[in-house]
Amino acid sequence: MALKDAMPSVLLENVVTLIHAKVPNTQAKQVEQFATCLYAHMSKDDLNARNDSDLYGAVLSQWNALNKTSVGEGHIRVFNPSQSKHGWQSSHSIIEIIQPDMPFLVDSVGMALNRLGITAHMMLHTPMAIERHDGKVTKVSYSSDDQHNVDKVAVFLIEIDRQSSDADIKALTKEIESVIDDVGAAVNDWEAMSQKLGGTIAELENRPYPGTKEELSEAKNFLSYLNDHHLTLLGYRRYDLHKVEGDLELIADKSTSLGLMTKSAKAKTETGLLLSNFSASARKEALDSSLLVLTKSSEKSRVHRPAYVDYIGVKRFDEQGNVVGEDRFIGLYASNLYNRSPREIPLLAQKVQRVLDNSGLTPRSHDYKALMHILETLPRDELIQASVEQLASIARGVLEMQDRDKLKLFVRKDGFGRFFSCLVYVSKDRYNTKLREDTQRILAQHFESSEDVEFTTYFSESTLARTHYIIKVDNNNMDVDVAAIENNLTEAARSWEDKLASAVISAQGEELGNSLIKRYVDAFPRSYKEDVLPSSSVVDIQHLEELDDDHKLGMLFYQPQETALNDNKVRLKLFHKDEPIHLSDVLPMLENFGLRVINERPYEVKTADGATYWILDFLMTTQNVASDDLADSQERFQTALSQVWKKELEDDGFNRLVLSTGLTGREVSVLRAYAKYMRQIDSTFSQAYIEETFSSYPQIADLLVKMYIRKFNPKLKTRTLNKFLEQIDLRLEDVSSLDDDRIIRRYLDLINATNRTNFYQVADSGLPKSYISFKFEPALIPEMPKPLPKYEIFVYSPRVEGVHLRGGKVARGGLRWSDRREDFRTEVLGLVKAQQVKNTVIVPVGAKGGFVCKQLPTEGNREAFFAEGQECYRLFIRGLLDISDNIINGDVIAPENVVRHDEDDPYLVVAADKGTATFSDIANEIAIEYNFWLGDAFASGGSNGYDHKKMGITARGAWESVKRHFREMGVNCQTTDFTCLAVGDMAGDVFGNGMLLSKHTRLVAAFNHMHIFIDPNPDAATSYVERERLFALPRSSWEDYNQELISKGGGIFLRSAKSIPLSAEMKKMLGTQKASMAPLELLKELLKMQVDLIWNGGIGTYVKATSETHVEVGDRANDAIRVNGNEVQAKIIGEGGNLGCTQLGRIEYCANGGRMNTDFVDNVGGVDCSDNEVNIKILLNALVADGEMTLKQRNRLLEDMTDEVSRIVLQDCKDQTRTISVTQVRGAEQLKEQIRFIHYLEKEGKLDRALEFLPNEDELADRLVNGKSLTRPELSVLVAYAKMVLKEQLLTSEITEDSFLSQLLVEYFPKQLQEKYTANMASHPLRGEIIATSLANELVNDMGLNFVQRMQDETGASVAEAAICYTMAREVFGLADLTKSITDLNGVIPAVVQCEMLHQLRRNIRRASRWFMRHRNRNLNIEQTIAFFKPVFDELKASVHQYMVNEEVEGIRAESNALIKEGVPEDVAMVVANVSTLFSALDIAQICESENKPVPLVAETYFKLGASVDLHWFLEQISAQPVSNHWQALARAAFREELDWQQRSLSSVVLRTCTESCDANKIISEWIGANQSLLERWFHMLADFKTSQSHEFAKFSVALRELNLLILHCEGQK
């Protein structure tokens, strides 16, 4: 067979090609045959990575060796072929073997390599038939049994691990040679040995034998069985036993040696063995009457199988029955002897039967069959070698442990003392590698064996596993304590589960213990059992049992005893139900506790009932543990970590303090909360830095918390903090870092400024609350951002943080859901500043709150997001109410478990703001739950309150400003179309309502955060209807707008678009030639385009000043579209929403010709409405509480008053914008007064000019020089401050307890309440605040921002006096009606005329107030004063002209006609023109009383006397005198007052000259005639005045002195 046929491989075909190309033709065929035989069965794997030349080289090398090896000879060669030496190469060493073919060669050579630890990478071995002719090989073929007369050889080609050492190669060669010799010796003598065995069997019949025939027969049968190919014979030798000197000597007859025995025979002459050297057992066995000695050699066979050589000794006896010798055979039992049933093997069958017979068991019974099975399955060598007694003992022992969970050991000594044979039975469930290894170790230790213990394990259908151990020893003559060994093995076999069961039952008792064992016995993974002691597992099981769906996490923090001396090592076990704990979640938490994880082991626990648990076991190092005994920290730490896991405690570096101090997690949260608050008040230190400080100084952290506890723990009697301050100061000396020192002192400041906390309040569950509230007094905190609120509450929890800032005790403002987590207080501070000035029209001062949600869902819908916001709002509200006082039955009640370090403070109201528009009901629910005295007045705008959107009150209030701006431009926006750009959409309150307040609104553009709406040429009517439709929808966006109604070129565009194409109409509207714009660019252009009105009904800041950066604005979202005030070309801006422009942006816009107020002026309607609601509810809730009305009746009444409340609010809006306009009408003329007012506010500490963006001194000086007035936004601020300061100043009993001013309380409420509940109003808790607020607003609205300050300057009056005198003047002059008659002319006459008329009123009332300050009868109260002056005023008002000279009357008529010409009704025009003259009614009334004369006479005398002696002309000169500074102004006012007083005095003098009835003209002329000489001096001085163009102030002073002397002289004459 050709090679290419045998192995269709290209590689081998190449080898054939090489053979035929290179080998001489005479040998090529034979070489190919040789290669065919050698490579025929080479595997594909062996062919890989080989080349044809090396395969060819290997074949040729073997071929050459074959040719050199003679018949019957062998060839062994070990070498490393190389290309240079041998013409081929291999990475391995090569073994070439050519030997005469014989059995066992392959096995034996492979065993030799294994013994030497050499790996064979390839072993080709082929039996070949070699035919030779004349010594040369002529043919090579596979060897077969039917071939004769051929040389049969075995050819080996073996690749082994490379051997580079010559010594190793020689040793290997020698070993192979030795093995082949052994094989040869065994194989060659096999027939002789078999015959010898057969002969021995035959001789037994005739040899003396002391035993029974039966035993002899058994022995013969067994030997015959062995000789029938059941024993591979390896050697034979005969031994003789001789007596020598009292001993016996066993002498070998070497001449009889066969097989392997011949090798030792050739070695040397062997001396005999003395039996006295044998062990007792060996001697006994050697000399007893048993015919056969069956055992094992102590050496393993080198031939065929690496098993211990079997030893069969056949004793020879003399006639006396003494042992005289032995025929010794060695070999290997054949495999069929091991595989067949022992009952089929002679000798063994009898042994088994004897054991069965001796057992006493009934044949065919269960136990009998079981015993038989045990015997049949015993290790075959044990059956052969053990005695019947030994076998019976083993079998009986195994039978007894059937189906019992126990371990059994059986030990048998080798008769010749060379080994112990041990059988260990154990249940299959218990058997494992570890038990086997432990058994090997225990047995080796016990039998003092230094060699490896060999084992064989057997499994059957039985529940038992059996392992047979052979322990080799030098001498097995020792006592064997089987019970002791068995106990050790039983302990070793005790599984982890056994130990667990014992521990559980011991800990939990039998009943509960057994149920737990059933559940957990197989629950733990192997890794857990290897790591955890069963006794520790009991604790773990207890923790796992405590877990449920509500409490999925358990833990155990402890210090293992192993690390007790190295106390910075601790362990933590986390137990979790259902799902594993992710390391990435836990590790940061542990690190924040100052624990560094150095090892982590997860275990999955699956219980029998299908539950899954996870145990995570951490080994950690700690730093700065406070207590020597970690057990002290265990519960604290576990509680804290559990809270962190449940997000009830924040996961940050503050948690290190739990272990480094004795503080609990909640106590540590106090420090964390203060750090969070520091961040909000612009602390320069990050939280991480503060954490590091306390990590460095944990004792100080501990002291700070203890100081806090001492201050606020309600159970402590003493609250002195000096001890703590001293200790902290002492420790601060060791603080080297200046920053650390500053941080610690900042904490001291904050604790000092904290007046209340809810730290000691508990929830309904009895547990501490999940949040902490702090009430601060900001004035006590250094370096606080301005402005400083009066009170501040900070609420902290891991879920929410919030602040509530109040400007005073009675304050209100909305709560905002902020998204500015890092600086929400900055946002709130800005808002509270705006709220302060906005709240000037209402009773409370400004307040504002804001909170941030810290655990908002990242997944889920808008509802989930909103729900979390609501929950955070609830926590925030609770945090505020927790530390607020309550009013019960008129008494102020402190909150429970709150230590107060301030005075009573029960007023707390909140309102809706950005993000909390629908939350008022929630707040009121909580207030009612707390039984808070305000009830549902706590949060305005709830379901039983006034719905601002439905009322449109905020937009309507702002629209009053818009209407005023248009009016002042000469446009009525309610009847004239105007263009509008608006921010927002129709779904919004302010935007939606605002865009429906005029049917003439032409909305050309609008935008919100999603869309841009453009309608270049809208139809006012149709677009109004469409907007109305959108507003009525539950939710709408600009996409809902009917695009068919949009004019040509317009559209609705997405702000997310890349670009927006511009139509021709849009280009025209924007004044651009660009074809398209990006959305942001378009928005910017829209803000800059020419339009009548910009209406801000949205969120965001869109206008700033040129001098401001976008960062300073603080609205990053709109940086890209924000414009400067001087770029805005809109004529008017209406601020329905907050913060649409910066204050500097407003000022710049107005300075550039724009018209606007401020947001707090424009959108005051909302807050005004809310405050009205609260105060109405306070009144009505008291009635409900008293049973005078039901809640249902109250709610109906509230609803019925909606229109009246709207009217009240809108009137406030109108009045406030009116006062700004009246103040502005004289422009720069009044700037000096306004500057003086600014100085006054600053001096009083009420105003921070920079904070309110009011001009500095240099800017004001520039404006004075350039004749520029303050802008409306600046005046708005001053008006607000005027009211704010007055509200505070007027809250005195002098005002609030005055019977007349108390009417303001009644007038404050809607008419429906005035009609029924006037009596109840007096007991309103905010009675005084309402009166003070109403009066302050009236004062500023009527008299301007600086009236009171001017009165104080000019007269030294107190604020209360100024207010009282104003009230008198207002009532006497009928100011309210007069003002109304003028404001009713809105849109009828030019606004400037209106304002000028109101300005004149303001001047005259101020003059009248000053008069009352100087001249009123202080014994009269307000009502009495009014009652005294009012009739005189009214009489004169009706008939004053008939008492005056014609010339003066004509002058008044000329003024009146000028007003009539402007459209003022004649009656109004006349009153306004007369008001200056009517001022004299005050003097006239007093003259009437003092001189007891009728009003007509006194009036005529007064006016005509004034005209006759030119007093009126002189008054005009005084009034016309210009002033350049404040003192000149005061002088001028003093001159006027002096002249008035002198005119009154002269009038009295003249009137005294007449009788009861006399004529005014007559007495005047008589008096002049009588005093001609005195009057000449006066007239002469007047002549000087008349000839001069300008006058010095001294001239007036001198002239008035002359007049005074005249009066004195006249009075002296009487």
Distance between the termini: 174 Å
* Overall spatial form: elongated
Low-confidence stretches: 1-7
Mean pLDDT over all positions = 88
Can you count the helices?
Answer: 68
The portion of residues assigned to helices is 40-55%
* Percentage of residues in DSSP E strands: 15-25%
Q: What is the CA-atom radius of gyration, in angstroms? A: 59 Å
Helices and strands: which structural class?
Answer: alpha+beta
* Biggest pleated-sheet summary: 7 strands, mixed
Q: What is the subunit arrangement here?
A: single chain
Q: Quick one: how many beta strands?
A: 38
Provide the descriptors you would attach to this structure in a database record.
single chain, 1614 residues, alpha+beta, seven-stranded mixed β-sheet, six-stranded antiparallel β-sheet, 38 strands, 50% helix, 15% strand, elongated, disordered N terminus
Topology of helices and strands:
Blueprint (H helix, E strand, L loop, with lengths): L2 H4 L3 H13 L2 H15 L4 H4 L4 H17 L6 E5 L3 H4 L6 E8 L4 H11 L4 E14 L2 E7 L8 E10 L5 H23 L1 H15 L8 H15 L3 E14 L2 E13 L1 H7 L5 E2 L5 H8 L4 E9 L7 E10 L5 E11 L1 H5 L8 H11 L7 H11 L3 H6 L2 H13 L7 E6 L5 E9 L5 H14 L7 E6 L4 E9 L9 H12 L2 H13 L1 H11 L5 H6 L2 H12 L7 E6 L10 E9 L5 H10 L2 E12 L5 E11 L8 H15 L10 H5 L4 H16 L6 H10 L1 H15 L9 H11 L5 H16 E4 L14 E5 L14 E6 L3 E7 L4 E2 L2 E3 L6 H15 L6 E9 L8 H21 L3 E3 L2 E3 L26 H10 L18 H4 L1 H16 L9 E6 L5 H6 L6 E7 L3 E4 L5 H13 L18 E4 L5 E2 L2 H7 L5 E2 L1 H10 L4 E4 L6 E2 L5 H4 L9 E2 L7 E4 L7 H9 ...
Parallel strand pairs: 24-26, 25-26, 29-30, 29-35, 35-38, 36-37
Antiparallel strand pairs: 1-2, 2-5, 3-4, 3-5, 6-7, 6-11, 7-8, 9-10, 10-11, 12-13, 13-15, 14-15, 16-17, 17-19, 18-19, 20-21, 21-22, 22-23, 23-26, 27-28, 30-31, 31-32, 33-34
Helix pairs in contact: 2-3, 2-5, 3-5, 7-8, 9-10, 14-17, 15-17, 18-19, 20-21, 20-23, 28-29, 29-30, 29-31, 33-34, 36-44, 36-46, 44-46, 46-49, 46-54, 46-58, 49-54, 55-58, 56-58, 56-59, 57-58, 59-62, 60-61, 62-63, 62-65, 63-65, 63-66, 64-65, 65-68, 67-68
